[in-house]
Amino acid sequence: MATSKRISGEPAYVLHRYDWSESSLILEVFTRNYGRIALVAKGVKRPSSSFRPILLPLQPLQVAFGGEAEIRTLKAAEWQGGHVMPSGEALLSGYYLNELLLTLLARDDPHPALFDVYDNVVEVIASEHGEALQSALRAFELLLLREIGLLPLLDAQTMTLLTLEPESRYSLVPEGGLRQANAADRDSLSGDQWVLLQQSLAASVPFTVTLRACSTVMAELKPQLRTLLNYHCGVGTLRTRQMMIDLQSL
Prior knowledge:
With 250 residues, the chain is an alpha+beta fold. It is built from seven helices and eight strands, in the order βββββαααβββαααα. It has helices at residues 88-104, 112-126, 133-147, 191-201, 206-214, 218-233, 239-249, and strands at 7-19, 25-31, 35-41, 61-66, 71-79, 169-173, 177-180, 189-190. Helix 3 packs across helix 6 (218-233).
């Protein structure tokens, strides 16, 4: 959705920043109505810049931008408040979300529903309710995969379209979708559990319902989603995931 006119008051989050010159940055920004876009923030590295303290990851912004090139120009940015910058595991979890979006979303491809889910997860990350963090991450992963068309239906076997048996076990695998678990599948969920997840994704407020559904199947769901995401990202391990592993090993 390229545009040459000035866009104002657009909800946004900074996903990543690159040096562009001695005084300027290139920002990868996730916006609600224009998707992932690249913006040049001129002069933002100068101590006098009003943008300098607010163009940070995991902070809700409203931005104005314009231009016809692939990299447009940031005209204004206002912090929307309410989120304290997270630290520790929560901060790394936020960077993990950003890495997923940078890797899996094409530029200029709007996903307003996914933006709202991201906004919900950032609220969890910034809160002191750490017990909900892992469930929130799993809910985001499921909703991201569904939004970009990489998640099969979770209430039927992918290759055969056979209905799931409530007590039978099924695994989600990169090239086969949802299939009946075999001896080589280390992690699986029951048919009933997969159907519940599918129903949560279709809810009118999917993040809240999916978070609740994920909380009951965390141990088995996490490695299956990790394998699927790594496959679609084309990596063995995402960089932020490796950072978490390295820190936990210290």
